[in-house]
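Hi, here's the filled form for the chain we discussed.

Project: internal
Contact: R.S.
Residues: 237
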Amino acid sequence: MRIIGHRGARGEAPENTLGGFQYLRDLGVRAVEFDVRQLKDRCLTVIHDDNFLRTTGLNYSLYDCNEADLEHYDHRNDWAHWPHRETTPKLIQVLNLLNDFEHIEVEIKEVPSMHEAEQLTETLQWQLKGLEDRVIITSFDEKILQALQQSRSPFKRGLLVETDLKAKAIEHAHQLDCQHIGWMDELASPEMIQLSHLAQLTISVWTVNNVDRAKALRDAGVQGLITDIPKVMQQHL
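And the returned structure, exactly as it came back:
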């Protein structure tokens, strides 16, 4: 089972930042999950929320920003002793840092329209070119997965599941031509894991921060463990 750093290593370093990704790399972990959103000038940036408040302390909408505005936001709101500023990274900066990573799960956050999904996925695939064997594009948003399906994307893609749909989630993943499924931890029952295997879907489970639970998922044959605490998991798995 692969240990995958959640938003870099959000329990051990500022999330979705270059410093956080470097921290993960320094651990020797070569698998990561992070979030992507598109700004109004079509710049792709790595951030979970659509507002800067939680991670920077500044109440400002991400979607009012252009690329040049990203330097103004320091994502150390909960990391007072982190030694250097962590501005909002662009996707291309993150990919450059992760150039030797073996596994990258790129979660695309929800967009308001199919047109925006098509725009975003076009830019995304261009920036990810050459990483087809290492990247899985994941989303909760059907529009994103449909846009990838319609463009005949060469990238492996995965449906993220946080609603208790049981086997219907697996059927839905197949309808969207997904090869991967990402189960929220609470929904990753032995039955759902077994059915996912039978459906020939690879599996990641998120977010797992309990070592005993991680061991149980490993023994069940889950391929990817998305965790906030990769250093701790390294020490026990």
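Let me know if anything looks off before we file it.
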